[in-house]
Amino acid sequence: MSEIHWRGVFPAVTTQLKRDESLNLAATAHHLEVLIDSGVSGLVMCGSLGESQTLDLDEKLAVVRTAKEVSQSLTGGRIPVISGVAEMSTAAAIRYAHAAQEAGADGLMVLPAMVYKADSRETMLHYRAVAAATTLPILVYNNPVGYAVDITPEMFAELADVPNLVAIKESSADTTRITALYNVCGDRYAIFGGVDTLIMECVLMGAVGWIAGAGLAFPKENQRLWDLMTAGEWEKARALWRWFLPLMTLDIGPHFVQYIKLAIQEVGLGEEWVRAPRKTLVGPERERILALIHQGIEARPS
To answer: Within a 13 Å sphere around the CA of 265, how many CA atoms are in the beta-carbon half?
Structure first.
């Protein structure tokens, strides 16, 4: 397993599928090769964009192993592979954490237990239990907008005694949370921005990483934006951002997986197929998203 330097762009990679909804591991591997070539610092597999909750255990582990093989082949394992953990119960999350570690994952991105909306005590017990069951470092995914469970800065302060809870994907859509986390927890956690359209504000507030979404279709530009922001070259970053922002909106809404997979297809890095109950876009919505994507491609910076 690689030692993870929790800094930089860690794209939340899609799971490429065939039209019959079976895994397309070859296409997934090709996309990973392109992402690594763009300069990313880590790979997040089997997250929300990776359609984790529609994959069975063997499929998720196959995706993790594929990512590890690509990282090992291209970088000697230098680029760490993080696996999402989004199960229905704490026991199931523990079982998957064990399996992912055995499959070679370098770290875990752990969500609250799905469906049931846990209170703060239950949420913290869930994270303590999963963390105690693995030696892997854990990125805690806080997304109260999507999953209706909010992990507050005060809760993170209480969890600070758990040594392998090391990073936070902050997706509350409130960038003041980053300052609040620093005020309450100091630099105990590495804080990652998790909402594409807010990443510039997140970096200004002190985020040290980005779990990127729309950049899957435009990885070189995504990495360039990150490099400009973290180098403090804000005038150049703003110019690139003004082109990128409409594309970043693909990462928002209930069809964000379909939107981003369609963008990946239109730039030739994969295909749009998703797994039911998701379906590919149709009608006016498809036309609108294709127009947005094609406008971005046509105006793509040289």
So the answer is: 19
Residue 144 tokens read as 């109260």
Rounded Cα distance, 26 and 30, in Å: 6
Alpha-helix runs per DSSP H in the chain: 25-38, 57-75, 90-102, 120-132, 144-147, 153-158, 176-185, 199-205, 219-230, 234-248, 256-266, 283-298
Q: How many CB atoms lie within 10 A of CB 139?
A: 28
Strand partners for 137: none
- Report the number of distinct structural domains present in the chain: 1
pLDDT digits (tens, 9 = 90+) for 146-182: 999 999 999 999 999 999 999 999 999 999 999 999 9
Put simply, whether the predicted model's pTM sits higher than 0.70 gets the answer yes
**Residues 263/293, Cβ–Cβ less than 8 Å:** yes
Residues 99 and 228: their CA atoms lie apart, in Å, by 38
Domain extent, residue 214, equals 8-231
Q: Does 47 map to a domain?
A: yes
Q: How far is CA 264 from CA 71, 80, 168, 257, in A?
A: 20, 22, 26, 10
CATH code for position 156: 3.20.20.70
Residue 38 domain-assigned (yes or no)? yes
204-225 residue pLDDT tens:
999 999 999 999 999 999 999 9
